[in-house]
Amino acid sequence: MTRYRIWLTAAFLLSLLMFSPKDAQSRQYFDATIRFNPMAGNLWHYQAGISLTGLEIEPGKRTNVGGAIWTIYDEEINSSGNGLVGVHVRFNTYESVNASGPVGNENPSGGPTRPPDIGTPPPEDLNAPLQPPDQFQSGGGAGSIGGGSSGGDGETDLAGEGAFEVTPIMESNLNYVMSESGRMLDVSGLDMIGDIIDPSRSVTVRQVFQTVHFVTLPDYQVHLGESWRAPMSWTIPYVGETMDIPLTYTLADIRTTYRFRMAAIDLKGILQFEVDTSDEGTLEDPDTGDLQSVRKESHISGDIIVYGRAYVDLDRGILVAICDTPEFGYTGFVDGDNRGWDPFSLSPGFYANLAFERRDLYTPLGNVIDQRQEVIDRIQELEWYTIVVVE
Q1: Which of 31, 178, 217, 270 is most deeply packed, by most CB within 10 A?
Q2: What is the mean pLDDT of residues 124-144?
Q3: For the whole model, what pTM was predicted?
């Protein structure tokens, strides 16, 4: 009798294992297929804050560089299907402020000069939320360019020699086509910027677009904690070259916050580089004030360290936000502490530390008596922040 009871119990337990439903909820939580596949015809309203702050140091001189941008823009989904998404971007408000200027002579015995207060926390207090600048220079997609004309301060057409500028928007309508993974296949509307603005001494809508639309998703289902890699193309301030920064993405969490069921994607990357650039133009003679033709040959080496977090809606297939900094223990958006419609109230989701060393060699051109060359060594240390939130 006991033997039959044992067999019946074993058969009952085996039937439970065979016919019980699979753990669908667990699989849904730990696995995710992440795609940019929003419905065509929808329009998404975003607000973004971008800031750059830092120092340029050369013998006997120290200069604050940087500024901030605040913008509201719409992304209208023109087409979506067959693995491609076509989007029209319209900037409704785009306001910029410059914070560049000399800070006096270099003092080797003193400490570093405090960077300008443009709403960015100093490096030792990156946990603090950003605060918006007190006053913006331009609004509604138009305004003056602070610090000088394109490519410089109005007295030179030599690349990289003008005042650093955070420019107002030059094109309020952009179009792009991307794959469902977020890889940019075509972008129109940014063409004119490279012909007008010196890319080594400015922040334009080009860099704004690049630091907002860089998230690349895997082409396969991923598990919680799984990582993938993809490059990010960025026109680097103070270098002027577009470089590919290898980024590692990690599916860190799947959360429901506000009305979004989101994949929280952490990102980090580092790029060490050396480039040589050259340009010919005119510079003002410091002694006579006359313009002289020169050739400038630059050797630039540096490190770029990137990290942050992005949120992608799993159901709507859109970018929800680029914010929160888990490395600093700040996750106010995903934890529901701050809705973040004011982007400066959140921690940045794209943070880049840029440290460059450069040697600039100047050679006089034309009919000149003194052919002596001049070498100037410069150090540039910058920090970039990007915050984006959908309405």
Answers
A1: 217
A2: 37
A3: 0.77
